[in-house]
Request: fold
Amino acid sequence: MEITVMSNILEKNEEIAAELNALFSKQGILAINLLGSPGCGKTSLVEQTIRLLKNEFSIAIIEGDLYTSKDADRIAACGVPVVQINTHGGCHLDAAMVKTAIAKLDLEQLDILIVENVGNLVCPAEFAVGEHAKVVILSVTEGEDKPLKYPAVFQQSAAIIINKMDLLPYTDFALDAATGDIRELNPDAALLNVSCKNASGLTDWLEWLKGQVLLRRKQKRD
Amino acid sequence: MEITVMSNILEKNEEIAAELNALFSKQGILAINLLGSPGCGKTSLVEQTIRLLKNEFSIAIIEGDLYTSKDADRIAACGVPVVQINTHGGCHLDAAMVKTAIAKLDLEQLDILIVENVGNLVCPAEFAVGEHAKVVILSVTEGEDKPLKYPAVFQQSAAIIINKMDLLPYTDFALDAATGDIRELNPDAALLNVSCKNASGLTDWLEWLKGQVLLRRKQKRD
Reply:
């Protein structure tokens, strides 16, 4: 019975996610599902992205957290629309939550919607939220063994960001080993080394993101 | 139906966890459920604990991971018995998994059993594995906002360890704020600042752990 219920939940989620995905595509909005452990730097990447792109693109953010509006407060301070979802203990966002959240956003003229998921390398991998692409962040302070221990999110992501490169000299993180393991799991993903703190490597991230926005616009026209 | 199924799963887990807890208590074994985000330093704390206590106490470890035996390999190198549980995508250990794992351990003469859970600040909080105490690790690189965002594990833990203190000077981690938030959530827990890398602060951790072992021995005698 467990398995049936779980499969029903996943099926229903896929249905709503497909509906959202079609809506975003139709409007020419790039939707990103941003994943990673607690504290890997998801909100910091969103802040930097807004800072560097908000004059060029219209951006909105959905923040997922179990409790508090700490992340939404940080994003609101950046001057873009943000909706906080509190899961009240739930370990991932789902498509229905995002569907409710977008009702509070003006989708007209929007270029980029970033959904920052709950900090969790496991459960969010199973629940699409309507995204065109998943992006996962691994911070060097987490250790190079994480991609092989939590492969699903790394396999599913179109871009994989290694963050906190500013801390690399103070850790034992084996960058070559991590890069090799990630390449084994996902040869096609964009692989970007950044520091959200000192802004190094962010140009490559912005280039990747802009490429995705242009792809959405092109597909909307076609 | 969902809710009923989930409640049945949790109830069944509580049942097996209580059975394991009684078994550990009867044998005078201290059972610890070690929790924290991916890369917070759970395995490093276990390694240091073994290194510093293995001549004084008999220790065994159960390692929980989605995939790989990386952590069990590290522990085996420390010269104590270890059993790896692979959850194959599952986001937490449960009592039934631990029950299967302890069949591979010699419980006679054992003083301390540490169950290192899957790296996840959310889901493991709901599933007891027979422990006498939960211990959660927060690393300073994760940010001081995590206790309030993931309160359950912090509320449930008898000891809360702030790890990677060696990296504190290179981060923006507000130690006072984190300590204040943790104290709000859980005034009674032991709160310990350590660096598993340079071994600072570990004396306090060992003292706490030894106190728990003696408590188990006393309760076994009584």
